[in-house]
Amino acid sequence: MSLEQLQSVPKNLESAPTLASAGHVAYQKALNERLALAFIAEQSGRAQYWFANNMLQVVGAYGSPPEKSDPALLTRDITSALKLSDDMVVLTEPGEDAPVYVDLRVTADQFDRYMDWARTVE
Q1: Could you report the per-residue pLDDT of 26-49, keeping only the tens digit for each?
Q2: Cα 118 to the center of its chain, rounded Å
Q3: Distance between CA 97 and CA 85 in Å, rounded?
């Protein structure tokens, strides 16, 4: 991991919500605020998963390679080629079971940026 990446990892990341939890909260907020994305997510049949996956594409998340404790910011460039597991806890290569990134977390800043973006979608 580069010095730049280490400096960009928030100090309180271990207390940040998991991606799965952030997806759930985003869906609940979208419902309460009657956002268009709530309807779109419901059409998928898996609204919480849809929000978690969409969050990865819009603001990214933090995650670590298996057996390593060095979290990295996973941007769209990284996550777009990976698949979020059904339980929303790991990213894998499509068609593979072995995790590429684990311990997926979203900071409060990332979550707030995501919700700000979600409110602009019509």
Answers
A1: 999 999 999 999 999 999 999 999
A2: 14
A3: 9
